[in-house]
Write a structure and sequence with these properties.
- The chain is mainly α and 454 residues long.
- The protein has a single domain, classed as Sodium/glucose cotransporter (Up-down Bundle), CATH 1.20.1730.
- The strands form two sheets. The protein has a two-stranded antiparallel ribbon. Strands 3-4 form a two-stranded antiparallel sheet.
- Helix 7 packs across helix 14, helix 8 packs antiparallel against helix 14 and helix 9 crosses helix 12.
- The radius of gyration is 21 Å and the shape is globular.
- The two termini are 29 Å apart.
């Protein structure tokens, strides 16, 4: 996922659950650019390559693209449109849907984001560590980086930085990220092109684009691909609901979401083109796990002409992308705590930081000499797969069904505000999007039945 951060002025950066927020984007183009700026992050450059490596390569890439541009896009439109109707975040939206139990589903989404952030900040800490080492021209292999307690110390340092930014507001940080993230994409593109010259590039392309047609019939593949689409687009986490609440009524939600989904998908595919030639050149196992990109990239930068300087730019920009996503995700947790529990901003920021830090320590320790693991897998990998490849699907599907069935259909279609639109061979209409939200649970249940009966 990549987690989306609200690109709004610092004085109203939180999502007020009780007070209807004013729109802050003056044009649809500005809204789309802000949304795209929120796409680029660790969900694309860290998670997608490792999920691809663990799920069969090209067949996973194909399944992911299909899921992102169909189900993911549809639910992206639904959540942002519902946010506009509710004029608030997930707790306010689902409380409006049902006064008795709706708020509990909203809080469930807040808890889910909290669990995701607990290990996302750990990964962001890795990017901070690599940024510091690259500036010192002392990049080391991942095994050496995690030989001591770097994973824990940099995690704690990132948490402290997030806390101070939450206190001061993220307006300036957001503007900086919008300027620097395009540079990160350019560097990733350049590294992907260079990676095609490596000795293992041909084998990597065969792995990355080769499709095992038999594997396409496996329900687990589609579940994992849908999970990655939800994760990287921010579906099922309440963040898009908050983000959509700041969009003016006249915005075409299908157009906006299509731009986000297409950009997100393109960057994911590009990241794989960068990582897998390194993987096969240096005989790294594609299913290495969550640290795959951190193992692979220093090896290429070490032999690339000008590699140390490119490494500085790459890891500093990657940290900016990761850090702004951290702040955005934490702000989304802070908002309902501040507004629903009536805490001061300082107390809410401190509470959020402490909770996320305590929950994240086991993930940080899984890449230290402690080697905390569950069933032989690092704790971080386990919690990522449980939330990012499991719970997020349930949350996304159930949330979409509640939105599509219980919000007034006419108002929802008006909020989507789009005529039928073609995306390649697919024709997308607001009615079709609502139908996806309504009937996706039935399809998901059938997939689960097939998975457990075969």
């Amino acid at each position: 996922m990549d987690l989306k951060k609200p690109d709004i002025p610092s004085e109203i950066e939180h999502v007020a659950e009780s007070v209807p927020p004013r729109a802050v984007w003056t044009s649809q183009r500005a809204y789309i650019l802000a949304s795209i700026a929120g796409v680029v992050g660790l969900g694309n450059l860290w998670r997608f390559p490792y999920m691809t490596g663990e799920n069969g390569g090209g067949v996973f890439v194909l399944a992911y693209v299909v899921c992102a541009l169909t189900i993911g896009l549809s639910l992206h439109v639904l959540e942002t449109s519902a946010g506009k109707l509710a004029q608030g975040g997930p707790v306010g939206l689902f409380r409006r849907i049902n006064q008795r139990w709706g708020r509990w589903f909203g809080w469930f989404l807040v808890v889910l984001v909290t669990l995701i952030m607990s290990y996302y900040v750990v990964i962001s800490g890795w990017t901070l560590g690599y940024a510091v080492d690259s500036v010192r021209f002392a990049l080391s292999p991942f095994d050496e980086f995690t030989a001591g307690y770097n994973s824990l110390w940099y995690f704690l340092a990132t948490s402290v930085l997030v806390f101070f930014v939450l206190l001061r507001g993220i307006g300036g940080l957001e503007q900086m990220s919008k300027l620097l993230l395009p540079l990160l994409v350019v560097i990733v593109g350049g590294l992907a092109i260079y990676a095609q010259t490596l000795p293992g590039a041909a084998e990597a392309r065969q792995f990355y684009f080769g499709v095992d047609r038999q594997a396409l019939l496996e329900p687990r593949l589609w579940r994992m691909a849908a999970a990655q689409a939800f994760y990287s687009l921010g579906v099922g986490q309440g963040l898009l609901i908050a983000y959509g609440s700041y969009s003016p009524k006249h915005f075409n939600k299908v157009l906006s979401s299509s731009a986000v989904a297409a950009t997100n998908t393109s960057i994911c595919v590009l990241s794989g083109l960068m990582v897998f030639p390194i993987v096969f050149t240096f005989a790294i196992a594609p299913d290495t796990g969550s640290h795959l990109s951190f193992v692979a990239l220093p090896l290429m930068l070490d032999q690339l002409p000008g590699g140390p300087f490119i490494g500085v730019a790459f890891y500093v920009l990657l940290f900016v992308a990761a850090f702004t996503s951290c702040v955005g995700g934490m702000a989304a947790i802070l908002a309902p705590m501040k507004d629903q529990l009536h805490l001061s901003r300082r107390k809410a920021a401190l509470a959020v930081t402490v909770i996320v830090t305590v929950l994240g320590i086991p993930s940080a320790l899984s890449f230290t000499p402690v080697g905390l693991s569950v069933g032989g897998d690092p704790f971080l990998d386990v919690i990522d797969k449980a939330t990012g490849s499991g719970v997020v699907i349930v949350a996304g599907i159930v949330g979409a069904a509640l939105i599509a069935w219980l919000l007034p259909r006419k108002q929802l279609l008006e909020a989507i505000n789009s005529p039928s639109r073609r995306l390649g061979p697919i024709t997308i209409s607001p009615s079709w999007i609502v139908a996806v939200g309504r009937y996706l649970p039935i399809v998901a249940l059938l997939v689960l039945l097939v998975t457990y009966l075969t």
